[in-house]
């Protein structure tokens, strides 16, 4: 018990400004390579002054065009998934070494759409995250509860467990390249956003879980994003929360102006 409260004190005294806020766009299955280049060219001047990390996770086929368009800017390019094996008979999959070789720096793993439609489980999310980290990519690991689970009152336990399983076998050193995105499933693509308090509460639970696993220093340093219908109107309040370090943005990352407003909110 004493350790637990010490951990909490340690977390509370940490200044949020010492962590890097990151706004990552998740384009999902949108934009051809030509559209990707055009959207990035439109975004570049709008986010050039960002005082936070700016990442765009694009469809696999857009990666070369996106990397080319983002060259020389502060926009980093990410993918939306990676397989856990380096190569082999896995038709339709892309491996972490392939992404690394192209110049990709980030990869989303365990997005709820991958869990819901493509059979990703906590175990495969862990394997994908480890493959990403072993290949020097930054893994944006998604966790979050369904509406039913929230109504059952098990959000905190569930998200803590998802976080623990996702991080099994991940070393303290590798944690420097881990971002956790708290994405309540009921808020993704629904226009229904978690309140700032709900978002902060669960991000804090994740931080506490990471502190238990790796110590307060790592818990305090890890970037924990909120994702779920974040937009130009609600971003200010969400990203201002003490334990929310930016966001993973779906729909609003497809519009240069809206995305740049969110980046500005995280830069304050
Ligand atoms: C997402 O795809 O991770 C997401 C949060 O989507 P949206 O912002 O559209 O809810």
What does this structure look like?
The protein has 268 residues and is of the alpha/beta class. The chain has one domain: Aldolase class I (TIM Barrel, Alpha-Beta Barrel). Helices cover 44% and strands 15% of the residues. The chain contains 12 helices and 8 strands. An 8-stranded parallel barrel has the order 1-2-3-4-5-6-7-8, surrounded by 6 helices. The termini are far apart.
Beta strands, count: 8
CATH class: Alpha Beta
User: Fraction of residues in helices?
Assistant: 40-55%
> Main β-sheet, in a few words?
8 strands, parallel, barrel
- Give the CATH superfamily: Aldolase class I
CATH fold node name:
TIM Barrel
Provide the low-confidence segments as ranges: 1-10
Q: What's the architecture in CATH terms?
A: Alpha-Beta Barrel
Short key terms for the protein model shown above:
268 residues, alpha/beta, 8-stranded parallel beta barrel, 12 helices, 8 strands, disordered N terminus, binds phosphoenolpyruvate
Quick recap:
It is built from twelve helices and eight strands. With 268 residues, the chain is of the alpha/beta class.
Topology:
Elements: H1 2-13, E1 22-26, H2 33-47, E2 53-57, H3 63-70, E3 75-79, H4 96-102, E4 106-109, H5 112-117, H6 122-134, E5 138-143, H7 147-151, H8 155-166, E6 178-182, H9 196-214, H10 216-221, E7 223-227, H11 235-239, E8 246-249, H12 256-266
Helix pairs in contact: 1-9, 2-3, 2-12, 8-9
The protein binds phosphoenolpyruvate.
